[in-house]
Amino acid sequence: MTETGAEVFYVQEKFEKGEQQMRNPLAETDLGPENQGAIGPTVSGDQERSLIKETGQPEYHKPPTNVFICVDGRIFLLAPEAEHGQAHPQTAGGITTTVSSANMMTEDDPAPLSEQTKGAVIKATKSGLLVVEHGDEAAEEGGCGARAMQRNTFGFVSEKPEIIVPTVMTIAELTGLTDLRLSANGANKPIIGQKDLLKILEQAGTVAGHDESWDVSPAEQVEISRRNGGQYVICQGLHLEGLAVATTAEGQVFDNQQYSRDHKHPETNEPIQAFAAAFGELKKAIFRIEDQNGGSELTAAKKTLGAFAFNIGTFKMLKNDRLKTVVY
Fold it and tell me: In Å, how far from its chain's centre is CA 305?
C-alpha cells in the first residue's frame, strides 16, 4: 500500500489481554492522499492508538451471518439479530449498492441503476443472502452516504487510478483473488490483474458521465429493494467514526456494532464508532451470487475487483486524512 503515498505501519508486536491473545493487524493505512470527507478521529493521538489497538480484541472478530450491512459505524436499529456469536459482514451501502456498482463498472452496456438495483436484490436473495438497506433518522431512506455518493465515487476512482489501484490490488492479493488461475490456450495465468482494474476504473468514469444511468434517487433505490424482498433499517445518530477496520479472510468479520457500543469519547461520552468492510466475505458472496445465477468465475473475479474499488472509493469519499484503516 505504500505506493499510494499512504502511511502504513506493519505491526510486529503481539498484544495480550488476559489469557486471550490479541489479533495482529496485517497493516495500518490512511489510504493515501486526497481523502474527500470530513469524518475522522476526535481524540488525542495516544487515545487514538489505544482505540486502534482495541480492534485486535478477539471478541470483535467473529464468524459472519448471511446479512451484509453497510460499512457505516453507527448502530443499526431493528437490524436482523446476529446469533451464536456471529456478526454481520459489511460492504459499502450494503450488498445491493456494492453489487450494482460492480455490475455497472464491469458489464458491457450496463443497465441503468433502477434495473441494477432490482437485479442485485433478486440475485443476492437467490444466492442465500438476506438483503438489508439502511437510512437514518435525519434523511430517512436517503440516509446512506455510500449510496448517496455512488455516482461521485465512480467519478473519483476513475480520476485517481494512481491512488486507487495499489490499494485495491493489495486487497485483491490479501483476499486471494489474484491467486486464482485461468487456463486459456494451455497457458496458466492469473484470472485477474491490474490491467483489468484499470479498465474497470475507466468504465466507472464513463458510467459516471451518463445521466441516463442514474435514473433513481437513493430513496427510490431503497423502495425498489423493499418491493423485491429487501429489508429496511435505520442507523441511529450522527457519524462519529474514528477509525476503520478491514478484514480480508473468509469466515472472519469485525463486529463494528459491538465496538461502537463498547467505546465512548472520554469527554463527550458519545460513541466512538468504527467503519468496517469484510473484503474476504464480499469476495465469497459475489462468487456465490454469480455461481447461483449462471455467471462465470472470470465474471465474478472482475465484479469482485470492481466491488473492492467501490469500497475503497467510498472510504476515501467519507473520511478525512487522519482516519486510519486497520487491515486484518
Answer: 12
